[in-house]
Write a structure and sequence with these properties.
mainly beta, 11-stranded mixed beta barrel, 1 helix
């Protein structure tokens, strides 16, 4: 199993070099802080922030319901983004308003391996712009996101008082009308290590993003990832401890 896992990772890493000669390559970094606070036996508050310099900054909130088995959870919320424009020289001046909702299924019975599948819907309202300035109106698009994640739990070190893991996350994003979309298709791959101590998980790693434009041009973005995930509780829920992971909050 591990050999197949590593072989698949190698294929993903060399795949960009087999794209056509029109592909554009860019290096970027991705930083994230994700939190989840349990407020009732089956409810939690969601808050996360992701930042990719000169690309986007997102602050996202939500409310999550966890089923009794915790194999399913459902979240709905709202996000606000700052985006770049062709004329802003990397400054994130273009606002986006994004109501969103998702469902996650965790495969039951997993011990050393954890597997999950997620579907998310984003309603994207992005500020319109012309050649040199922002306009008053907003474009609207539907975006559908399909995510799968596998996590291998390496084990716990008493010396470092931490648990260690590695994860691979695949996500496909499809953006549809009614407005024009500069990136109708995107696929993301994340290779993450996990260092968990208490309720905090630090996840350094590597990511690839493959984007296809409306006329077929390909862009490949890749680079370092550092995510910090913090779970907390507002009171001691002895009967039910909710479980969430960094891959839930991309």
């Amino acid at each position: 199993m591990m050999k197949r896992f590593l072989g698949f990772i190698c294929i993903l890493l060399i795949l960009p070099f087999y794209t056509n000669g029109q592909a554009q390559f860019r290096t970027e970094s991705w930083w994230g802080l994700m939190t989840s606070g349990q407020i009732a036996e089956r409810w939690s508050l969601w808050m996360d922030t992701h930042y990719v310099p000169e690309i986007f900054l997102i602050v996202r909130s939500g409310l999550t319901y966890h089923t009794p088995s915790n194999n399913f959870n459902f979240t709905a919320g709202y996000a606000h983004l700052g985006l770049t424009t062709p004329f802003s020289e990397g400054r994130l001046i273009r606002p986006e308003r994004r109501p969103w909702a998702q469902v996650i299924f965790r495969v039951p019975g997993a011990t050393q391996y954890g597997v999950s599948f997620r579907f998310r819907y984003d309603a994207r309202f992005r500020n319109q712009f012309d050649n040199e300035s922002l306009l008053d109106g907003y474009d609207f698009n539907h975006r559908f996101r399909f995510n799968s994640a596998i996590r291998y739990n390496i084990g716990r070190s008493e010396k470092f008082q931490s648990a260690f893991s590695v994860s691979m996350v695949n996500e496909t994003l499809l953006t549809r009308g009614p407005s024009f979309s500069e990136v109708p298709f995107e696929h993301r791959v994340f290779l993450l290590s996990g260092i968990q101590r208490g309720t905090t998980t630090i996840s350094p790693g590597y990511h690839l993003r493959f984007q296809s434009g409306p006329s077929g041009q390909v862009r490949v973005l890749q680079g370092f990832v550092l995510w910090i995930n913090m779970n907390y509780r507002f009171k001691d829920f002895k009967r039910h401890l909710l479980r969430e992971f960094p891959s839930d909050k991309i």
